[in-house]
Design a protein that fits this description.
Length: 540
């Protein structure tokens, strides 16, 4: 048995090799193992082969035409580990010429994919989902190193992504298997001489651009609906998160999707970003991120756009709320993954009469949050980059100068910022409106519910919001008055479960996500009309 084991410490240090070889060898189109044992020191032979495919020395290759390639640019983009602030990975800096080639092959691959039966498309997606779950360890480890996601949450992100892909395959065969049948005589002046058949057809090439904070989950939430609907897919991963995305794409490669159907191009936004989003070969853009999405929307051509952008999710707390429940949700909603979530609670609007009690309860819980490296599963880990930490600090300094009450001392070490609750924040402070994307949470005391709704609606964002009260009638009225894509009653904002519709209004986005909505968005309706020489009515 021992001769079947191989150990590659160099690769292991890159988070690539974490599986043990056993004798129940392998299945799958490209030699993918059917099962792995997470042994953390050795690896299956087939997995050695697979991983050597995606690495060139220290650098990760990009994926095009079913192959792992080095860019002809000869240049690499470094990925900085937010914890150590040192270069941890390197990815290819793809050129515009390489983007052109990817677009060409994506277009060709899509044509035959559209002719692949729906059940076969679903079957491949199920296969990719199960490989993704088997590969959770190396993908999760990249998430830890690239974006400082706590180790446990990193695994959860990958498993959730596998579930999303499977759910999407199932949902796709149901909703794409149905069309409509219309008859002409329902419209005034018409006899029943026309039968109209509608079906959903693919758009072509979908460009997917996810953000750094959920690079795997927010990539598959675009990839799976695009593929089940018969589109091809070009992925442009975020720089921080690119290696996790490449590992994830490798799972789709191993599942055996046709060549050119999925591509993953890495590189600098400044060199290939605009080139990709304005490329004539792109038929649809699904983007999740910040203000970059607004700029992309203005530059993109006449194609469907799915934009999920920033948020400033308000948490409105009424006098009758269960304050322990509110405090628990503020901690979960405001501080998990160090506040780097689009749906994080980003401003608390609490009735003055219960504000002292709530702030005290939240402070007690803040004191229990652990702060440190993601490898140790700390609650608060370094934010993604130095520039992000500097931005957050700018908001804190502004609040200090304008007289906010600091419930904790402001503390920062490199990219690590300790959790901070700012009480008595006023509307003239930047943090009342801007998205810190860090573990700093403002509390604004309000004297009426209307004041809270007004603050929520005065924001340029409208992603989610939440309201805490025991009075369901009031909750409904307040929820209806809040100009946000979703309102949560008695819980923190959240994107999942992934089949729920998810959308922002105003600067928070265009269109709606969630599995069903994304599949529909990545299709268009085609109709075929059968014209009869004489009217025909069924009698029975
Ligand atoms: N609404 C949502 O569903 C949702 C979910 C997660 C994150 N977000 C938002 O994302 C932001 C944080 O993520 P981020 O910092 O990665 O966002 P970002 O806007 O800086 O980057 C998002 C993506 O755009 C790419 N990009 C940058 N310049 C580009 C260009 N010119 N052309 C094409 N692509 C380009 C980046 O590489 C990245 O992949 C926050 O504002 C957060 O609220 C929103």
């Amino acid at each position: 048995m021992s001769q079947l084991f191989c150990s590659f410490h160099a690769l292991e240090s890159k988070g690539l090799l974490h599986f043990s070889l056993n004798q129940q060898q392998v299945g799958g189109n490209r030699g993918v193992p059917t099962s792995y044992m997470a042994n953390h020191s050795v690896l299956r032979i087939s997995s050695c082969k697979a991983n050597s495919e995606i690495l060139d020395g220290e650098a990760y290759k990009y994926y095009a035409d079913g192959e792992w390639k080095k860019s002809s640019s000869g240049k690499l983009v470094p990925i900085i580990n937010p914890t150590t602030r040192k270069v941890h990975y390197k990815v290819q800096a793809c050129t515009q010429e390489e983007v052109n080639k990817v677009m060409e092959t994506a277009k060709i691959a899509q044509k035959s994919w559209a002719k692949t039966p729906l059940w076969k498309r679903a079957e491949l997606l199920h296969k990719a989902a199960s490989i993704l779950k088997e590969y959770k360890t190396p993908i999760a480890e990249s998430l830890v190193k690239e974006i400082a996601k706590p180790a446990k949450d990193a695994v959860t992100e990958v498993v959730r992504s596998g579930d999303l892909v499977s759910y999407c395959a199932e949902e796709g065969v149901r909703i794409l298997g149905e069309g409509k049948f219309l008859v002409s005589d329902s419209f005034p002046g018409n006899d029943r001489t026309k039968y109209c058949l509608t079906s959903k057809i693919p758009l072509g090439v979908v460009l997917a651009i996810p953000p750094f904070n959920y690079p795997v989950n927010l990539a598959v939430s675009k990839i799976a609906p695009a593929l089940i609907a018969g589109n091809s897919l070009v992925l442009k991963p975020p720089t921080q998160g690119a290696v996790s995305c490449l590992h994830m794409v490798h799972c789709f490669h191993l599942a055996g999707f046709p060549k050119g159907l999925i591509s993953c191009v890495t590189g600098k936004g400044s060199e290939i970003g605009d080139f990709l989003t304005m490329h004539p070969g792109v038929s649809c853009i699904s983007f999740t991120g910040g203000d970059t999405g607004i700029a992309i929307s203005k530059k993109a051509g006449m194609i469907p756009l799915q934009m999920e952008l920033g948020g400033k999710d308000a948490c409105i707390v009424l006098e009758d709320a269960d304050l322990d429940l509110v405090a628990a949700n503020i901690i979960k909603g405001g501080f998990s993954y160090s506040g780097q979530r689009c749906t994080a609670v980003k401003v608390v609007l609490v009735m003055e009469s219960v504000a002292d009690a709530l702030v005290e309860k939240v402070n007690k819980r803040v004191a229990k949050l652990t702060v440190g490296p993601p490898e140790e599963n700390s609650d608060i880990t370094p934010v993604v980059s130095e520039s992000s930490a500097n931005f957050i600090e700018g908001l804190v300094v502004d609040a200090k100068q304008k007289g906010a009450t600091f419930c904790q001392e402001y503390k920062r070490d490199g990219n690590l910022i300790w959790p901070l609750l700012l009480d008595n924040v006023r509307p003239d402070m930047r943090i009342a409106w801007e998205e810190p994307f860090g573990p700093v949470l403002p509390v604004i005391r309000i004297t009426s519910v209307e004041e809270g709704i007004h603050h929520c609606n005065a924001s340029n964002f409208g992603l989610q919001g939440c309201v805490f009260t025991k009075d369901i009638n009031k909750a409904i009225l307040i929820g209806d008055a809040m100009e946000t894509g979703t309102v949560q009653i008695n819980s923190a904002p959240a994107r999942g479960p992934d089949h729920f519709p998810f959308q922002g209004i105003k600067d928070s986005g265009i269109g709606s996500q969630g599995i069903t909505n994304s599949i529909n968005m990545m299709t268009k309706i085609k109709t075929t009309v059968i014209n009869l020489p004489t009217p025909s009515y069924s009698m029975g």
